[in-house]
Amino acid sequence: MATCAGDTSGEVAGYIPELAAVDPDGYALALCVHDGHVYAQGDTDTAFTIQSISKPLTYALVLSRLGTAATDAKIGVEPSGEAFNEVSVDERRRPRNPMINAGAILTASMLLPPVKSVDPGTVDRVFGDIVEFYSACAGRRLALDESVYRSEATTGSRNRAIAYMLDSFGVLDTSVEAALDLYYRQCSLTVTAADLAAIGATIADGGVNPRTGRQVMSHEVAQRLLSVMTTCGMYDGAGDWVTSVGLPAKSGVGGGIMAVLPGQLGIGVYSPRLDQHGNSVRGVQTCRELSTNLGLHMFNVAREAPSTLRAVYDLADIEIGAGWSDRERIYLRSCRDRVRVYELQGDLTFGGAESALRRIEADLDHIDVAIVDISRIGVIDPVARTMVLGTKFVLSSRGKRGILVDPDNVVRKSVELYRSDSVAPNLGAPEQLRGFEPTLPHVHTTMDVALFDAEEFLLKRARDETVTDAPSD
């Protein structure tokens, strides 16, 4: 965030009076990983209206209710190459995709009964279904911002023109005003950056909310959302976004951006100043920085195992090393549970490294030595290497020891790369490690040597404590 915070370019969405009045300097970032853990910084309590980030969610609700064939018959999935509020239809007079306003208004209309006169009670009921669905995706109850809703409804002339155009084409089967009212309401639900991250993580996890464990949408619907968000979610800036950021995403003129790394995490950013495409200036920059620095581009060739942590165990069933005295062996036998081994597997990228290191941090009160075994790792990207190096920093700061089993010297090579002036700036250490000069932790090529190192550490610390506790003369 610090890299992007100084950029004050762009303007708030002044064409909606209530949005024109927001604090233009608001800035928040949240990241929700695959198990529901959320990292957040900045104005994390600031609520803002979801606006166009609602579009993929209502699209998901329609897909879930009507199916793919019926939905595709009314709405295309091709990028428009035009601004979000253009009157854009294909040769069949369908909106080109559900992420532009024409497609989103038609999507909302498909939840209403196919009659030209819809009573307000029906609109209320359908909107209640939308709120329930959005809330299930976010993992908490969302609420309507009445002021923004009224502001949009009274100033939405262009959207009204789009809706009546669709009606004139014969593709809008319900009341135009009811469809517009439903659309304005869905755009006026309030969220935080953490809500967007949780929604993104729900889509990333194939429709399962990682915080509640609830299956909110099917895997097939989540897959469809990811596809359409990739090609259409950032409007006429989608090509540059996919190339430089490489994450399925959706922006909103309220200043939010929701981005998804399939199978791993969701990102929520809030900053209300917008660029010429209607996307948050700092939001786009923040996502670009995260993608580059954390290796999050979805076309990263590394593939993680379903679970990066292959096994976690202490030394209870492992023989004590040879060469220790009987007294030392008695002591080591008493603290075998204070040494824990973490075996990693698969290709290691940010998501897997974050999960493994967070598990180690959670165990710190119960261990004195953490042995991280990366002998089963195939590929480890630069960010993950930097994070693994950070185990020494985290453990040493707590008076503990971090040991690595690295038969291929992957970490040793990464230190050499880090110290190279030409490579170091591109490693992109996570914020909590910035300013940390990586030195080699205790790195060994075999588990036997690592176990000896752990036992030696425990014995040395016991001797030091004995000397410290001895009565003074």
**How many structural units, i.e. domains?**
2
Q: How many individual β-strands?
A: 13
Number of helices: 17
Fill in the CATH topology of the largest domain.
Beta-lactamase
* Beta content: 5-15%
Family: Belongs to the glutaminase family.
Catalytic activity: L-glutamine + H2O = L-glutamate + NH4(+)
EC number: 3.5.1.2
Binding site for substrate: 52, 101, 152, 159, 183, 235, 253
Describe the structure.
The protein has 473 residues and is α+β, with helices and mostly antiparallel strands. It has two domains: 17-294, Beta-lactamase (3-Layer(aba) Sandwich), CATH 3.40.710; 309-469, Transcription Regulator spoIIAA. The chain is 43% helix and 15% strand. It has helices spanning 17-20, 54-66, 68-74, 101-109, 120-138, 146-155, 157-168, 176-187, 193-204, 219-232, 238-244, 281-294, 326-334, 350-363, 382-396, 410-418, 447-469; strands at residues 28-33, 38-42, 48-49, 143-144, 189-191, 249-251, 256-261, 265-270, 309-314, 339-348, 369-380, 401-405, 442-444. The strands form three sheets. The chain has a five-stranded antiparallel β-sheet with strand order 2-1-8-7-6. The chain has a five-stranded mixed β-sheet with strand order 9-10-11-12-13, sandwiched between helices. Helix 15 links the parallel strand 11 (369-380) and strand 12. The chain is elongated. It starts with 16 loop residues before the first helix and ends with a helix. InterPro entries: Beta-lactam/transpept-like, Glutaminase, STAS_dom, STAS_dom_sf. Its EC number is 3.5.1.2. Residues 339-416 form the STAS domain.
